[in-house]
Amino acid sequence: MTLKRSDSQITLVNPTFDNDPALVLLLKPDNVKQTTMTILRTGQVAYNVESNTSLTKCSVLRPGEKDPVALIERKDLFPDKITLQGEERQTIKSWLKGYGTFKEFPISFERSGNTYHWKINFVSQLALFNANQPDHPIAWFERSKKRVIDGKPVILQAWLAMEPEAISIQDAVVVSFLVVEHKLRTDMKAGDLVAGRASNYVF
After folding, report:
1. What's phi and psi for 107, nearest 5 deg?
2. Which residue ranges does the record assign to the DUF6593 domain (predicted)?
3. 89-144 pLDDT tens trace
4. Could you tell me what percentage of the chain is helix, strand and coil, using 3-state DSSP and rounding each to the nearest 5?
């Protein structure tokens, strides 16, 4: 979700938690191809996500670093590619098992000898699990939402929460999240078009 001119008077609201996660990153705006991810507690920028004008290449960068954490290349006729920092260029589906148009979840990757699964719940919200602890998410995402609170329109900001295990592989969590959430939104948009429904997601 991105702000329109008519939204200029809408207040952005940060998330609150009963039990604070170890790290919460806000997405401003809620656009997984072009956004700034800031740390909720400090306001410090953790990642910049930048795409070219044709939206075929997306770089995930840490502030002040020249080399991207990841370069994502999306193609129409050939497999999507990704170059992770310090690794060789590869197809996304080689890194993320289960990735592909309308493929079923979970979508999985390996890091530090462990396998991690991105799963979705009944309202298509993403959560990440260690395969050895399938009942306890180590990261989860909430999309932005428009609400009316005390008679005033507000936008509840999009956020990605992480527990300590996710922080230990933070770059992989962030990059895989951006790829999988984009796939999820694209699949949902395609499904909406088939069903004749409009979609407000930013892809």
Report:
1. -115, 130
2. 30-185
3. 999 999 999 998 666 789 999 999 999 999 998 777 899 999 999 999 999 999 99
4. 20, 35, 45
